[in-house]
Amino acid sequence: AVARRPRLHLMLRLGFLAWTVGWIGWVAGAQLSVIHMLNWVQSVGAGVDWAFFLMEPLIFLMSAFLVVAALLWGRAAFCGWLCPFGALQELLNRLAVRLRVPQIEVPARLAERLTAVKYLVFFGLLGLTFYSIELAYAVSGVEPFKAAITFRFDAPWPAVAYAVALLAVGLTIERFYCRFICPLGAGLAILGRLRMFDWLKRRVDCGAPCRKCEQVCPVRAIRVDGTIDMNECFYCLDCQVVYHDAHQCPPLIKRRRRREAAKTPAL
């Protein structure tokens, strides 16, 4: 229903992202990390220490929701709506676009290769977890979450500089960190392969001949054939806004024009 009303969708999207950064991130400090996921993986073999997990109730609730959401929507529900650092990236990029900062289009082949980086980082951390949890914690510094969100940029300058650098790149390449580096996103994408439903609607026209949704997808998660790569989708719903818009979606435009022509009285 929201996707049928572009203005409402935009207001809801921006408002929710601002709430995610402001309250979930900077106020509540509930930024999930790949370390939380690795702790869950370790607990499967060692037995769940509920006292340990319940030390941070909000993080525990977010983690539980993350697992359920991954089975329903893939990585998209968390990465696209509930990750404070991801939300911060998107808000800053939207501001940059509004200020006419030039945007860089990563070529599809290069993007495919860069996407593999986050999986390599995730599996590297997963292996380190069983070798040395202390070393895994150290390497998890590849995540900028603590500096940018947990400590609100009041952290050692190298960590702050790293987080700011990623945000700066994100001004010209939307969600650069999420798409190409984030090990948490990689782990969720793997878990998301078990998702039970495909919620996003497509038409037989999608991909051939129509490629409008592919063009509007900010993270290029829509393939040439019109299908959506849910490993990379962030559920922004931009494609669904186009899907329902009779003034943007080419198949709907044709239908609208036929109806209008049929209503026009012959002279």
General description of the model:
This protein is mostly helical and 267 residues long. Helices cover 64% and strands 0% of the residues. The protein is built from 15 helices and no strands. Helix 7 runs antiparallel to helix 8. It starts with 5 loop residues before the first helix and ends with a helix.
Gap between N and C termini: 39 Å
Q: What is the percent of helical residues?
A: 55-70%
Count of helix runs: 15
Class per helix and strand makeup: mainly alpha
Q: Quaternary state, please?
A: single chain
Mean pLDDT reading:
89
Radius of gyration: 20 Å
Strand percentage: under 5%
Sheet bearing the most strands, described?
none
Described by the principal axes of the CA atoms, the overall outline is globular
Number of DSSP strand runs:
0
Name the poorly predicted regions.
none
Order of helices and strands: HHHHHHHHHHHHHHH
Key descriptive features of the protein:
single chain; 267 residues; mainly alpha; 15 helices; globular
List the topology elements.
Elements: H1 6-27, H2 34-46, H3 50-53, H4 57-73, H5 76-82, H6 84-98, H7 108-131, H8 133-139, H9 145-150, H10 157-170, H11 176-180, H12 183-192, H13 212-216, H14 238-244, H15 250-263
Helix pairs in contact: 1-6, 4-12, 7-8, 7-12
